[in-house]
Amino acid sequence: MNKQKIDSRPASPKPWYDPRIRAIFFQTVVIALVFWGGWTLVDNTLSNMESRGISTGFGFLDETAGFGIIMSMVPYDATMTYGRTFWVGLTNTLLVSAMGIVTATIIGFILGVARLSSNWLVAKVALVYVEIIRNIPLLLQIFFWYFAVLSSLPSPRQSIDVGGALFLNNRGLYVPEPLTQDGFGLVWGALISAIVGVVVLKKWAKKRQLATGQIFPVFKVSVAVLVVLPILAYVVAGGPLEWDLPALKGFNFGGGISIIPELAALWIALSLYTASFIAEIVRSGIVSVSKGQTEAAKALGLPNGLTLRLVVIPQAMRVIIPPLTSQYLNLAKNSSLATAIGYPDLVAVFMGTTLNQTGQAVEVVAITMAVYLTISLLISLLMNIYNRAVAIKER
Amino acid sequence: MAESMMRPPKISIGPVAWMRQHLFSSWYNSLLTLVVGYLVVTSVGPLFSWLFFDASFRGTEPSQCDGGGACWLFINERLNFFIYGFYPDELQWRVNLIFLLLAVAFVPQFIERFPARKWFGIFGLTGLPLIGYFLIPGGTFGLEVVESTKWGGLMLTLILAYIGILASLPIGIVLALGRRSEMPIVRGLCVVFIEVWRAVPLITVLFMASVMLPLFLPDGMNFEKLSRALIGITLWQSAYMAEVIRGGLQAIPRGQYEAADALGLGYWKKTGLIILPQALKMVIPGIVNTFISLFKDTTLVLIIGLFDILGTVQSTVTDPAWQNVAIEGYVFVAFCFWVFCFGISRYSQNLERKLDTGHKT
To answer: Do B43 and B152 lie in a common domain?
Structure first.
């Protein structure tokens, strides 16, 4: 029986018409081409580097850098190594990306909702904002904030003074720095236990609701617990917090936390630019939830707030998350424009100054690209996990 | 009878009713309207008087900017530089001719009933770049050579964006087909290529093109700065293009592939005659959108020292003869970009509506 079936097949095709054999042939050719191309590049690069007297390897990372960087999150001075400059650049990139993502999300969601507002004026203002901002290159916006707005602020002596604590001038924005004293650990402990308590409370409330149908006001109680416990701990510990106020010393300010204008310009421009894209994503996400869903929720007697929270937003988020991810990625990549105004991000410090001083182009570029690749993969991984959690559970 | 002819009550029609419904429907909407309205009025008024009413338009000297508003003389004075860069004055007719041909090729695309507008578009994508290739650098047909270091301004921005998109289209098609291929090695290579380029910022690509490309090439073979930037932009853009085209390939129903197989078409005939024509038509709006983002991103070339339109403005606003013209310069560049990008995006939305045949679920 089995044998007969095999025999009745049509005569097998000639080997050069067999798709499997063709596939193997083509792939062999492709591999050969790629290897040949790769080998040529490596060979050219090595011979070029030899003729220019550039050494290879990552040994340069241990050499002394010898240049200063205007802002660093990790301790740094000119006597440290090139490897250290990498960390300075990386942390600065991550800092401005994180700041930008937070503010862009907030502004973007507000604008996206405003676009759909029943208030004509609000909807039109949001529309005009989005259409203007997203059609102007980001680099131009960064230049505008840095060269036109922030550099025309008054000098440190004529700083704009907000309540003696906040100072704004052309050297940056100065805010008081909180200094934690002994005993502040108690406040942290209280905060952590409050968070744990809220999680437990939420689980318990859900269980009770499923069992009895009674709704426990989780949100209000959670907020109360989260606010009251740390404040209580703060008072009990005797207010273990002091503020380091910025003050004018000589020609510049000392003390407090300073936000340099490069960072401020980049942050503002990135936030405003990305927000205009996020606004459109949010708008289309909300629009994509069919009217029937809202109407069904109303028919069930859910009040407006609950309709939004339990019906519209969870469904809109499914549509919003994937494009939002790519906007976050874009923001992180766009933060590399920092180099145009001199904010010491990874590209400016490492791919700029370090590369110029050491001449190790291949290594430096490879490291920089690897970093961006990692950031990209990491953000998409996190977002994919979240996306899987909110995706439609089909039965 | 008379009742049915009566107009609706005054309260439900007319501007008052419209305002009640759209601006003052509830107490918080009224509050919002008042606050936002106040902000708009207080910011738009001074903005307009700075832009137009108090601005100085006529004259040639910095001292004539005395209205307290914008100093548009500055733009007027430097307009030639902003458009052509260092391109010699007497040869600018070549660039103008290309601008004219560009308009001839693409303005009909915005007009629905224009006869044979498809052919104008095809000319714009094939003949125009060819003419430009000979005309702008010169050197053949007795044309005087203009080195690429002298190109600049709006002209350079358009060249970068146009060549970038045109060259990345075929590479993008190949990559997209490769990514959908059933051969695991081809697919893997394409995925890696696409994902690596998409993950890195354009700046690093441009840096790489200007620093590392000379290292990659054999001795004696080298490109000038503009070509290196173009190579970087094209490779980077082709990864994005591949993803757009892949979207179109995935949107084609399986039945089309199977029908082509049933007809006995081979891979290339199936792809070239059945799949690609449908897929490309479907992704035209996507391609236009990538063009817009590339167009905006070309400003980055100023970081590696090319003078695109932003570069030319950036280099002149620091001129000490003109004081504080930075904002005017930026507003001018912003306006140029905005007109292009907004116009093209409107066109793409229009196209999307027209190409939407209602088959999508």
So the answer is: no
Q: Do B186 and A362 touch (CB under 8 A)?
A: no
What share of chain B has pLDDT > 90, as a percent?
15
* pLDDT above 60 for B5: yes
Whole domain around residue B6: which residue ranges? 2-52
> Do residues A270 and A335 make contact, with C-beta atoms less than 8 angstroms apart?
yes
What residue ranges of chain A have pLDDT lower than 70?
A: 1-11, 250-251, 391-395
**Distance (Å, rounded) from C-alpha B326 to C-alpha B143?**
37
**For residue B122, is it within any domain?**
no
Task: Copy the structure tokens of residue B135.
Answer: 């005309």
Contacts of A375 in chain B (CB under 8 A): 199
- Residues of B whose CB is below 8 A from A357: none
The complex scores an ipTM of 0.87
B325 with B207, same domain: the answer is yes
Q: Which residues of A touch B195 (CB under 8 A)?
A: 373, 376
A133 touches chain B (CB under 8 A): no
pLDDT at B236: 92
Query: Crossing angle, helix B117-125 and helix B92-110, to 10 degrees?
Result: 140
pLDDT digits (tens, 9 = 90+) for B11-57: 677 777 788 777 787 788 888 888 988 999 998 888 888 888 777 77
Same domain, B33 and B177: no
Contact A367, A351 (CB under 8 A): no
| Residue B8 Cα, gap to closest chain A Cα (Å) | 23
Q: Is B321 on the interface with A (CB under 8 A)?
A: no
Residue range B246-264: average pLDDT? 89
Alpha carbons within 13 angstroms on the beta-carbon side of residue A355 total 22
In a domain, B234, yes or no: yes
| CB burial string A105-137: b at 16+ within 10 A, e below | bebbbebbbbbebebebbbebbeebbbebbbbb
Nearest-CB residue to B183 (from A23, A132, A373): A23
Q: Which residue has the higher pLDDT, B245 or B6?
A: B245
A 3-22 → B contacts, CB under 8 A: none
Q: Is residue B359 scored above 70 in pLDDT?
A: no
Q: Which of A135, A152, A346, A357 to mutate to test the interface with B (most CBs of B within 10 A)?
A: A135
Number of domains in chain B: 2
- Cα separation, A340 vs A242, in Å, equals 37
Q: What's the distance, Cα to Cα, between the start and end of chain A in Å?
A: 41
Q: Does B175 touch chain A (CB under 8 A)?
A: no
Q: pLDDT for B181-190, tens place per residue?
A: 888 888 899 9
Q: Is residue B21 part of a domain?
A: yes
B287 and B180 inside one domain: yes
B 98-137 near A (Cβ less than 8 A): none
The answer as to whether B26 is a domain residue is yes
Residues B8 and B157 grouped into a single domain? no
Is the CB of residue A372 less than 8 Å away from at least one CB of chain B? yes
Q: Do A121 and B342 touch (CB under 8 A)?
A: no
Question: What's the CATH number where B328 sits?
Answer: 1.10.3720.10
> Does the distance separating the beta carbons of B215 and A351 come in below 8 Å?
no
